[in-house]
């Protein structure tokens, strides 16, 4: 019998304060609260983790070891869970064979369609699969791309062979192959390559006939540089060493396959058509158009196939991804696009009573597109599923059956249940979220005056319609427009033409030992502080001193190498993770031992560790709203939005020269209240003479722009134009103008 609620008792992971809560099943439940309050800890690290753990337990041990590992949450009891799907913003990584079509199954149905009704008739559907030898182009093995030598990077024409003209490792001076070119008497090793004849340069590179035509023929068996390079690096099926991989990355590039022109299929499959289009042409068509085209397939024998195909395509159109094409590699999708694609996959599923967990599904969505996303959440619920959403966007809160606020503040000041009820009730509840919802944020009344401008000239990247546009300097410019309108493409072009610092949401580090302490470099100051206060040498507090725990060498953990598996880390039993001998732990500052300091939040550390160097290094992290992080918290545990803010803090600390900064949706993961903190930080950058360009959908940020560039009108080929550039106050007649008007209370 199915339970009506997910019952959680005594949740204590991270900052949760022995939280008790009953989450209704079969509804859309939105979790809100300021950044760092514990929403993700409750939803992901507690509910999802326990659901994942329990699900894994149902598999035999052999399989269990191959499944994603879920750390069991610290919680007394959880009842009422069901099988779960987490739909987060992690990019759909993987290999070059994964496309929008394959990941949504639309490609499977398109292949079926071609196998049944294409002309000339081919037969089986695997003939239209680029993952199947029966269908794939053999030249590119179904990848659509081939790796070719980047010959322009091989030589420095201004140098002679003796001066190091051959840049390719192994071929230049001192290299294994060097004498095969410089010492054979065929080439003039002392003359810059630029002064050679074309025929000589061709012979050097390509050998073969080019070499045979020269006056002084090279010895028998001569191989040109390109021939040899490709034999060694490209025509080998060996696993390449890291070093070789590096060389490959540097001296090759990928090019469209010369045989299938990117269609990935062999000739027979490539040329068969349905309604006059080949499957490759359909893969390159906008999904909007393909959905339209699919309605024209009328053969009765394929009606179920067409219905399944259309269901996938229509879902993508509904969710605002109609501007993509099925052949688009998933590795090139943005985080928000990846998340929406994953959602489409599950809409096709006929499973019921599942638990769907979303992490900020509105990321990357213009207010105009948000309604489509909320409809999808409702559809999932209407099919009988439970939908849990972590979200800051009021438009999503508005469709929730129930809202749960965690808080009241961040870190230690959070972790409690502050509100549970409807959106209407929340608005009257006086919680931090309610307060922010009721606050009016006006359009900036005195936009800054630019000092100059950076011109982006003739931009045609992706869908951009040959744009030439001025980006004003020493102000904050916001790029707006519906998803797929070309904002990122314009930003990328700006970076390409003017060199900028891009502050993205990629992880700050992959090193699990990296923490705010190591990242800000305060460890030395900390040791000196403890030394000063206790009149002992600073070296006592270092991990490689006699003060360190002898069993784990001051690491707090013991690493066990396992022969065939990933190594394992366990907390050191001697010091119980506290890294130092009891003797060292007796020395304190403000009642804190050197190990206690790890548990301090950045904000607390600023107040409790009396040292100007420590305060100075930590202040910028506090300024960007990350004061709730603990000094010893591994940076690998940070979310995308938090990583982005760590990077902003670093720039604030280090950069002095006027710089162009480009940020993609910095409000990701931020509560309305924290957006003020972010705006303050961006203002700070501009006030230091920097130029800030932000891609953003958040209306509060748009209202605070000094300059607005609105792209559109639609996505993909229907976009790529500039609809408006100027002050925010004067924009009219675009989707962005509409959103600004609608959302500003009159
Ligand atoms: P929210 O989702 O509301 O922004 P989180 O649940 O991510 O907040 O974080 C709640 C608190 O727990 C914060 O103080 C955060 O720094 C801390 N925290 C999050 N993940 C970890 C972790 N893996 N280890 C230690 N502390 C963590
Ligand atoms: P926005 O940032 O406004 O959401 P983008 O600049 O990402 O829009 O995309 C504009 C158009 O260019 C879309 O049609 C998108 O599908 C296409 N596009 C973006 N990146 C790529 C890529 N790497 N390969 C092919 N098409 C792309
Ligand atoms: Zn090919
Ligand atoms: Zn130890």
Automatic annotation (TrEMBL):
Which superkingdom?
A: Bacteria
Q: Where is this region: Disordered?
A: 431-456
Any Gene Ontology biological process: DNA repair
Q: Which UniProt keywords apply?
A: ATP-binding, Cytoplasm, DNA damage, DNA excision, DNA repair, DNA-binding, Excision nuclease, Nucleotide-binding, Repeat
Where does this protein have compositionally biased stretches of type Basic and acidic residues?
Answer: 437-448
One Gene Ontology cellular component annotation held by this UniProt entry: cytoplasm
Matching Gene3D superfamilies, A to Z? Answer: ABC transporter ATPase domain-like (1.10.8.280), ABC transporter ATPase like domain (1.20.1580.10), P-loop containing nucleotide triphosphate hydrolases (3.40.50.300)
Q: Which Pfam families match?
A: ABC_tran
Supply the name of the protein.
Answer: UvrABC system protein A
């Amino acid at each position: 019998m199915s339970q009506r609620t997910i019952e959680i008792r005594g949740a204590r992971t991270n900052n949760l304060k022995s939280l008790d809560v009953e989450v209704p099943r079969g509804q859309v439940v939105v979790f809100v609260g300021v950044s760092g309050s514990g929403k993700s800890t409750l939803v992901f690290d507690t509910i999802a983790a326990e659901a994942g753990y329990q699900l894994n337990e149902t598999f035999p041990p052999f399989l269990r070891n191959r499944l994603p590992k879920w750390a069991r949450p610290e919680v007394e009891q959880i009842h009422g869970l069901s099988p779960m799907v987490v739909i987060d913003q992690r990019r759909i990584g993987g290999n070059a064979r994964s496309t929008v079509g394959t990941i949504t199954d639309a490609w499977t149905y398109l292949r079926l369609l071609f196998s049944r009704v294409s002309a000339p008739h081919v037969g089986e559907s695997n003939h239209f699969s680029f993952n199947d030898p029966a269908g794939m182009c053999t030249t590119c093995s179904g990848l659509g791309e081939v790796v070719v030598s980047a010959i322009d990077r091989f030589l420095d024409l201004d140098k002679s062979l003796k001066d190091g003209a051959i840049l390719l490792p192994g071929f230049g001076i001192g290299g294994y192959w060097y004498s095969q070119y410089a010492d054979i008497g065929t080439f003039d090793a002392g003359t810059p390559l630029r002064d050679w004849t074309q025929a000589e340069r061709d012979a050097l590179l390509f050998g073969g006939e080019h070499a045979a035509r020269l006056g002084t023929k090279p010895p028998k068996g001569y191989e040109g540089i390109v021939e040899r390079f490709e034999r060694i690096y490209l025509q080998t099926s060996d696993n390449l060493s890291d070093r070789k991989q590096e060389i490959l990355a540097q001296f090759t590039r990928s090019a469209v396959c010369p045989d299938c022109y990117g269609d990935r299929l062999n000739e027979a499959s490539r040329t068969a058509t349905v309604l006059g289009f080949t499957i490759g042409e359909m893969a390159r068509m906008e999904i909007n158009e393909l959905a339209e085209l699919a309605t024209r397939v009328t053969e009765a024998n394929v009606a179920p196939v067409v219905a399944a195909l259309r269901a996938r395509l229509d879902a993508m159109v509904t969710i605002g991804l109609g501007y993509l094409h099925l052949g688009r590699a998933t590795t090139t999708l943005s985080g928000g696009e990846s998340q929406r694609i994953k959602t489409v996959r599950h809409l096709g599923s006929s499973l019921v009573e599942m638990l769907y967990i979303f992490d900020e599904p509105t990321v990357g969505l213009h207010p105009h597109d948000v309604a489509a996303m909320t409809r999808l959440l409702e559809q999932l619920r209407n099919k009988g599923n439970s939908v849990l959403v972590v979200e800051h966007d009021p438009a999503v809160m508005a469709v929730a059956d129930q809202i749960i606020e965690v808080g009241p503040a961040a870190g230690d000041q959070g972790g409690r249940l502050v509100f549970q009820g409807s959106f209407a009730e929340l608005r009257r509840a006086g919680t931090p979220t309610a307060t922010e919802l009721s606050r009016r944020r006006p359009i900036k009344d005195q936009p800054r005056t630019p000092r100059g401008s950076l011109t982006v000239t003739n931009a045609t990247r992706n869908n951009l319609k040959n744009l030439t546009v001025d980006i004003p300097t020493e102000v904050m410019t916001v790029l707006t427009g519906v998803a797929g309108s070309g904002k990122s493409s314009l930003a990328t072009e700006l970076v390409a033409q003017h060199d900028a610092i891009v502050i993205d949401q990629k992880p700050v580090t992959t090193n699990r030992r990296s923490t705010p302490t190591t990242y800000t470099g305060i460890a030395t100051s900390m040791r000196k502080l403890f030394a000063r206060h206790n009149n002992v040498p600073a070296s006592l507090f270092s991990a490689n001193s006699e003060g360190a725990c002898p069993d784990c060498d001051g690491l707090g953990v013991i690493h066990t190498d396992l022969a065939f598996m990933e190594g394992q880390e366990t907390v050191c039993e001697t010091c119980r993770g506290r890294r130092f001998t009891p003797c060292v732990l007796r020395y304190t500052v403000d009642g804190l031992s050197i190990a206690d300091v790890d548990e301090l939040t950045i904000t607390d550390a600023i107040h409790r560790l009396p040292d100007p160097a420590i305060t100075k290094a930590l202040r910028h992290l506090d300024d960007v709203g990350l004061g709730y992080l603990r000094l010893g918290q591994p940076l690998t545990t940070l979310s995308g939005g938090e990583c982005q803010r760590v990077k902003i803090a670093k720039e604030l600390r280090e950069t002095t020269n006027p710089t162009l900064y480009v940020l993609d949706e910095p409000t990701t993961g931020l509560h309305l209240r924290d957006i003020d903190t972010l705006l303050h930080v961006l203002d700070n950058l501009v006030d230091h003479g920097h130029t800030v360009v932000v891609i953003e959908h958040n209306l509060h940020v748009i209202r605070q722009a000094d300059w607005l560039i609105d792209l559109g009108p639609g996505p993909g080929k229907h976009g790529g134009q500039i609809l408006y550039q100027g002050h925010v106050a004067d924009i009219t007649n675009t989707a962005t103008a509409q959103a600004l008007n609608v959302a500003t209370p009159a």
